[in-house]
Each structure stands twice: as C-alpha cells, then as structure tokens.
Amino acid sequence: MILTNSFLISASYIKVCQRNDPNVDKCIMNSVEELRPKMIKGIPELDVPGIEPLSLGQIALARGPQGAKLTAVVNDVKVRGPSNFIIEELKSDLDNNRFDFKLLLPRLDFNGKYKMDIQVLLLRLQGRGNITGSFKDYACNVTMRGHKEKRGDDEYLTFDPFKVKLRVGESSIYLTNLFDGDPILGPATNRVINENSQVFLQEISPVLERSLGELFTEMANKITSKFTYKELFP
Questions:
Q1: What is the pTM (predicted TM-score) of this model?
Q2: Using CA atoms, how far apart are residues 54 and 201, in angstroms rounded to an integer?
C-alpha cells in the first residue's frame, strides 16, 4: 500500500512533529496519545495490528530438586491492558533516531491454560485448568533505535527491534481445578503460589517483554513505512 502526503494530512490521528521544535519530546508524546484509541483494535488502512489482547507464547516453569520438584506449563495466554500505558518520560535524539520511553502499565489482566505437576518424595500431585491473574503498576522502559532507509529519492525511518524492560509491581494469580478440585490442596496451593509469585514472574516477564517489544516494533514500522521521514519530522 502506498500512501501520499494527502493521506497523512487527512489522518487526524497521525500528528506531525517539527524536528527543530524545542518541545519535540512533548509533541511525540502527544502524537502517541492521539494514536492510543487506534492501537486497541489496530489501523487497517496502515496494516497496523491491534494491541489488545496481547498473545504470549508458551511459558514453562521448573523448580526444585528431584525429590521436591514442581513443573508447570502455561499456554494460550492472553493479556489485556497494554494499551492503557502511561508515558512518564520521553527522551528523543532525532539526529541518531533514538527514543527512550519510561512507561507505567497500571494494570495487566491475563488468562490462559495451565498444566502442573508436583512431586514430593513418593507423593505426586497433578492438575490442569484455567489460570487468571493481574499485574499492577509495572514500570516499563522502552528503547527505540532506528535508521533511515533510502527508497528512490525518499528516506524512510525503520526501527530495530525494540528493547523492553519491565520492573515488577504487584501481582495476583489464581488457578482453577488444582488437583482435581481438591477443597484443601487447591486453596492452599493458590496461597503458596501468590506468596511466592516472584517465581512465576521471573518466567513470564521475559516472555512479556519479548512479546511487547515485537508488537511495538511491528506497529511502529508499519506506520513509518507508509510516510517519508520528512513527512513525519519536517
């Protein structure tokens, strides 16, 4: 799809920032805010995918020695809430096409399917069912680095894979049908999981960081590929 400058003008959600504007960082932040409503479902006319829900790959967890081992696999994880990010700070370097964002993710809700296996000496406990949970007040650092690519007589901005780093806030996790719905083991295990939720977060955070980075990179490059560098930053 080839779009012209007239489309850029008519697309009210694309805000152009003057590269020599002393408040260019604020302008870029406002541009992102204008795009936010479109991010949820995507922008079909620009081939930009939606951000909600965010799908994660398989998450595997293995902890403990052979005599007291816990293994778990979580699949089909859907995360809702990434589009509600708050931009707390932006530092841009247009000469080097670098943008450093500090974001806050107020709340992320997720659900998926789990399978768990716990072995303590000769006792083996298994369970499978639904997993739901939430993460609150996650700090997120996003580094965007790009380069200009020549196409004919024009230059376009292309971003390298985004680097996303999360700093953990609060979390809660709930698993249904633990050990075939055992009325004692199920609630007790859920309490233990939440008391030790950092173990689960250590496994899910890299997957979440990678998935957010890939999605943000794809969204940004879909947009910048449709407009020349001069159109975006005259």
A1: 0.82
A2: 17
Radius of gyration of the chain (CA): 22
CA proximity to 110, closest of 16, 201, 213, 40: 201
Which one of 3.40.1390.10, 1.10.3210.10, 3.30.565.10, 3.15.10.30 gives the CATH number of domain 23-232? 3.15.10.30
- Residues 171 and 61: their CA atoms lie apart, in Å, by 17
Tens digits of residue pLDDT in 95-120: 999 999 999 999 999 999 998 887 76
Asked if 109 and 77 count as a contact pair (C-beta separation under 8 A), the reply is no
Residues 4/14, Cβ–Cβ less than 8 Å: no
Amino acid at 10: S
CA angle 101, 205, 179 (to 5 degrees): 155
